[in-house]
Amino acid sequence: MSGTPFLFKDLKKAKIVMITGKVHDDIMANILPNKAELYVQLSPSNIVIPDISYIESILFIEDNTLYIPFEINNNRVYIQSVFEANGKKFFAFTEKKFVKANVGGAYNSGPKFDEYKEIITYYLFEDNELLEIKKGNSGIKLLAGESWKEARDFVKKENIDFNDVKDMVKLLSFIEKL
């Protein structure tokens, strides 16, 4: 099997802010996105799972990524805060989907091992409304409006990968300058 159901392969150093204002610095943590669970290591043999309603934010220090609890389709989940500009907030929701190996057959082109595949969905939050941003031209049109052709050309020129959050930040930065 390849991959993991967790957001990261291993626990990562994080700064966790509780809704009470209490801050836990340099604590090891990981997120199980499909269950919206935050795993926090208090000691080598003690991992706790605080309820999502007690968490205000999680900053994974190594890659400086911020996750917050958010409600999507009546489910509380942890989403990554990707970009903010002009009253707009952009988020990425990462799921891990289990894909069974496709073994057998002469023309087998599927995965050779069971794996957890990462699926990223992007959202725009503006005026208290949450909109899913499609990957591709329809998402570019939603984000860039009348300047969507310039944004599309930027995607081609810069070889933007919609499945890479860092590439999406480049695209969003470019669009905000249009």
Task: Explain how this protein is built.
The protein is built from 3 helices and 10 strands. With 178 residues, the protein is of the alpha+beta class. Strands 4-3-2-1-5-6-7-8-9-10 form a 10-stranded antiparallel sheet. α1 (137-144) crosses α2. The protein is globular.
List the helices and strands and how they pair.
Elements: E1 12-18, E2 23-32, E3 37-43, E4 46-48, E5 55-60, E6 65-72, E7 75-85, E8 88-99, E9 115-126, E10 129-133, H1 137-144, H2 148-158, H3 165-177
List keywords for this structure.
178 residues; alpha+beta; ten-stranded antiparallel sheet; 10 strands
Brief overview, please?
The protein is α+β, with helices and mostly antiparallel strands. 18% of the residues lie in helices and 46% in strands.
The total count of helices amounts to 3
**Major sheet: arrangement of strands:** 4-3-2-1-5-6-7-8-9-10
Helix content: 10-25%
> How much of the residues is beta strand, in percent?
over 45%
